[in-house]
Amino acid sequence: MSMIVSSIGQGLLWASLGVALFLTFRILDFADMTVEGTFPLGAAVAVTAIANGMNPYLASGLAFVAGALAGLITALLYTKGKVPILLAGILVMTACSSINLRVMGGSSNVSLLGKTTIFSGAFLKSLPKYFDSVFVGLVVIVIITVLLILFLQTNLGQAFIVTGDNRVMARSIGINTDNMTIMGLMVSNGIIGLGGALIAQNNGYADVSMGIGIIVIALASIIIGEVVFGELTLNQRLVAVTLGSVIYQFVRLLVLQLGFNTNDMNLLSALILAICLMLPRLSKALHLNHVIKKGVAKYDAE
C-alpha cells in the first residue's frame, strides 16, 4: 500500500513537468531541450537558498524565476538570434550544467539534512507516510492546471494557441509570434524549475545530474495521457497529462517489482515512451480497434 501511495505522490509531483512541456511541445510546437537544464537549475537554486536559511516557499519561487530566465535565453536565441530550435535548447541546457555547479558552490550535490523544507510543516508531518508528497503534489498541480486553463481562455491565451497552430496565419492577423514564443518558454521552464525545487525538497538533496532523462519522463506523461484517454479537449488534455504522470509512475513501480535494476530506469523510460509513441500505428496496422470493437459487440450480444 505504501508503495502505491508513494507512486501517486511522485506522479503528482512530476506532473508539473509534463504540463509544462505540454505548453511548448504540444501547444507551441516547440521541441525545447532546455528542460534538462532548468530542472536541476531549479533544484540547485532552491536547495542552496534553503541551505543558506531562506524560507522554502520563497526558495521555490526563486527556482521558478531561475527557470523562467533560462527559458527566456532559449527564446531569445531562437527568436532574435535565429538559432535553430533544438540547438538553442541544447546551448542553454549545456550552460546550465556549469551554472548549477556555481550555484551549489562547486559541489555536485547539496543536502537538505536538518533543514526546513515545504515538506517539514506540522500538518504534513502529521499525515501517514508518503501522503505529504500526495498532498503537496495535488495542491501544486491543481493550481498550475487551473491557472493554465483560465489563461488559455483569455485573448492572450488564444493568441498563444494560434501561434502554435499556424505561425504564418498568426502573424497575418497581427499576433507577435516572437512574444508568444518568449512567453511560452518562460512560463514552461519556470514551472519546470519549480518542479525541480519541489522534487529536490522531497528527495532531500539537489544533484547536478538529476536532469538527465527528465524530458523522457515529461514526454511519457503527455503521450500516456493521450494514448489512454484518446480524443479530448485542450483543457481535458491538461488533466490527462497529470493522470498520465501517475500511470507512468505505476509502470515504473511494476518494472522495479519485476526485478529490474534502478540504474536501467532511463533505458526503460525510453522504451516505455517509444512503445506509447508507436501504439497508434501498431493499433492501426494490427487492426486492434476493430478486434476490440468486435469483442465488445460479441460480449454485449451474449
From TrEMBL:
<feature type="transmembrane region" description="Helical">
    <location>
        <begin position="238"/>
        <end position="260"/>
    </location>
</feature>
<feature type="transmembrane region" description="Helical">
    <location>
        <begin position="85"/>
        <end position="103"/>
    </location>
</feature>
<feature type="transmembrane region" description="Helical">
    <location>
        <begin position="57"/>
        <end position="78"/>
    </location>
</feature>
<feature type="transmembrane region" description="Helical">
    <location>
        <begin position="266"/>
        <end position="283"/>
    </location>
</feature>
<dbReference type="Pfam" id="PF02653">
    <property type="entry name" value="BPD_transp_2"/>
</dbReference>
<feature type="transmembrane region" description="Helical">
    <location>
        <begin position="182"/>
        <end position="202"/>
    </location>
</feature>
<keyword id="KW-0472">Membrane</keyword>
<dbReference type="InterPro" id="IPR001851">
    <property type="entry name" value="ABC_transp_permease"/>
</dbReference>
<feature type="transmembrane region" description="Helical">
    <location>
        <begin position="12"/>
        <end position="31"/>
    </location>
</feature>
<keyword id="KW-1133">Transmembrane helix</keyword>
<keyword id="KW-1003">Cell membrane</keyword>
<keyword id="KW-0812">Transmembrane</keyword>
<feature type="transmembrane region" description="Helical">
    <location>
        <begin position="134"/>
        <end position="161"/>
    </location>
</feature>
<protein>
    <submittedName>
        <fullName>ABC transporter permease</fullName>
    </submittedName>
</protein>
<feature type="transmembrane region" description="Helical">
    <location>
        <begin position="208"/>
        <end position="229"/>
    </location>
</feature>
